[in-house]
Amino acid sequence: MRRIAVLDAPTNLGLRPPTASSVPGCAKAPGALRDHGLLARLRARDAGCLTPPRYDPGDWRPGDGVCHAPEISAYSAALADRIGAIIDRGEFPLVLGGDCSVLLGSALAMHRLGEAVGGRIGLVFVDGHSDFRHPGNASYVGAAAGEDLALVTGRGQPDLAAIEGRRPYFRDIDVVVLGIRAQDEYRLDLQAAGITTRPVPALRAEGAARTAQWAHEQLVDCAGYWVHIDVDVLDPAVMPAVDAPDPGGIAFAELEILLAGLVDTPHCLGVELTVFDPDYDPDGAYAAEIVNTVVAGLAPVVAPGAVPPRLLPAGPVAPAPRAADSRPEPEPLPAPAAVPAPAVAVEPIGPNPTAGDDLGEDPLGPGLLRRAPAGDEPDPARSGIDIA
């Protein structure tokens, strides 16, 4: 089995204040989910909590850029460090947000990892909104949680879109967007960028299980991928406890099946959960439902036969034929310069979590990463509203 490590990232820096004298409640989400036994039910390691900077919009005004940008940038770098440390231990990170600006830290961690293995890491973006607002398509920006997909694909101010000089964290060709509403205001911008999308009507028509497999197939040229889940992908009839509920979402059962399909592969490197707001859940019923869904959806990760993560550097991109609802065919890209000539796999060492296989003791100790012999084959929030 793969061990899950749960890391709290209770930031609300990417959201506008609900009122002039209050702060967003999604910073309380990790605690609310833990109160419903999430860690015990997952048999997960507690990876602690990364405390965010103070929420204070101050005198921010439209035209000032993204609010809290310095704080979000610093927090993202620290979060990337924590996620990287979890992956270095051979564990599966489950990051509990917080708002969707959490994605910047995850994206930075994935870009670092891709550089380390000489390949590219992809993103499966499960969200009720595209979060694709940026200076090229909006009069001003302000709330990072409504701009996170734009930022992680390199659109926006450098202190957020190019932390450590890395830009973009994910290429457009390596992003799959699932669950946005059919009328999303930036859907045409996604299409023009070549970002693969499957809105709710298409997701529902194909089914959650087939959609998960389809998403994996779109990222076949990546060394691995990260999964972002904003709970506003759910319909507000079943999940109103978010900052920007939007009708036309999916059901809990569909999210469970989708999540299970996305994580049931060693190429899935981790998951983040964002935008649940316990302030709109006074009796804890929605928190309990989220925990039930996450526990069932992550069951493939902790199954006895689950394969640990193994990464291969991506070679030259040879795009496969796309489904009818996907993006246009991209131009072939050259292989990244960092790719070594022989193929190498990166795998966790120490006791093998796969049942029936005993590697014995490794002199480097458990949880470190090593390069496997060449030829070893791998096993197959959002806030859409500005601060004002």
Describe the structure.
The protein has 388 residues and is of the alpha/beta class. Helices cover 28% and strands 13% of the residues. It has 12 helices and 10 strands. The protein has helices at 29-34, 38-42, 69-88, 102-117, 148-152, 158-161, 187-193, 200-206, 208-218, 252-263, 285-297, 299-302; strands spanning 4-9, 45-49, 92-97, 121-126, 175-178, 196-198, 224-230, 268-274, 346-348, 369-371. An 8-stranded parallel β-sheet has the order 2-1-3-8-7-4-5-6, with helices on both faces. A two-stranded antiparallel sheet has the order 9-10. The radius of gyration is 20 Å and the shape is globular. Mean pLDDT is 85; it is low at 315-388.
Report the end-to-end length measured between terminal Cα atoms: 47 Å
- What string gives the helices and strands in order? EHHEHEHEHHEHEHHEHEHHEE
**What does the largest sheet look like?**
8 strands, parallel
Strand order of the largest sheet: 2-1-3-8-7-4-5-6
Summing up helix and strand content along with how strands pair, one would put the structural category as: alpha/beta
Uncertain ranges: 315-388
